Structures are given as structure tokens and as C-alpha cells.
Amino acid sequence: MYGLIGKMRAMRGQRDAMMDILLASTGGMPGCLNYIIATDPADADAIWVTEVWTDAESHKASLQLPEVQAAIAKARPIIAGFEFQVETHPVGGFGLPAVKAG
């Protein structure tokens, strides 16, 4: 499996609008096992996104889906930046298939 954890910053006061865009565009992405959007209790303009994919190729392919491209275009004006992103290799957990750590 392939995972990403990232922190995005919305323009001041636009966090909820950005979350709405992300939530509306995350259904039905082939290879996506988990896509969680969370607020940051210490930062009113930040959003944390945690993703788990079957593999890196599925994530890369998702960025070309028409609905994802439309969401990116809609969100671009209210994105202030990306502060943090890390790749992970999930090994399982509630709701995910177990795999051997490698």
C-alpha cells in the first residue's frame, strides 16, 4: 500500500469551502482505500489529508480523473499553500487489509 499525509493551508476564512470541495470529489477513486480530511484544532486555516492507496500508481492516476481535475481547478484560488507532506507505507489497521511490512 501507499500512503500520504499532508497539511494544506486555505486562504484565511476559506477552510470550510476547501474541505467541501475535497469531500465532494473523493468518492469512487480507483485504488483509494482511505481518504480522510481533518481540521487542525490549533490552526483555523489548516486541513490535514490522510490517504491510503493500493499503490503509488493508483494515486498518480487519480490526479488525472476529470472530477479530481475539476476539484483542483475549483480549489486553486483558495489554497494558500502546502506546508507538509510525507509518504508512508501502510501495513494495515482498522478498515485496511493487512500486509507484511517491507
Please specify the SSE layout and strand pairing.
Elements: E1 2-10, H1 15-24, E2 32-40, E3 43-53, H2 56-62, H3 66-75, E4 79-88
Antiparallel strand pairs: 1-3, 1-4, 2-3
Summarize the structure in short:
The protein contains three helices and four strands, in the order E-H-E-E-H-H-E. It is an alpha+beta fold and 102 residues long.
Q: Descriptors for this entry?
A:
102 residues; alpha+beta; 4 strands; four-stranded antiparallel sheet; 38% strand; globular
Describe the structure.
The chain is 26% helix and 38% strand. The protein has three helices and four strands, in the order βαββααβ. It has a four-stranded antiparallel beta sheet with strand order 2-3-1-4. β2 and β3 form a beta hairpin. The longest helix is centred in the N-terminal third of the chain and has 10 residues.
Write down the secondary-structure element order. EHEEHHE
Give the radius of gyration: 14 Å
The strands making up the biggest β-sheet line up spatially as: 2-3-1-4
Q: What is the typical, i.e. mean, pLDDT?
A: 91
Query: In terms of per-residue confidence, which ranges show pLDDT below 50 for 5 or more consecutive residues?
Result: none
Based on Cα principal axes, name the global outline: globular
Determine the number of helices (DSSP H or I, runs of at least 4 residues): 3
Relative helix content: 25-40%
Proportion of residues in β-strands: 35-45%
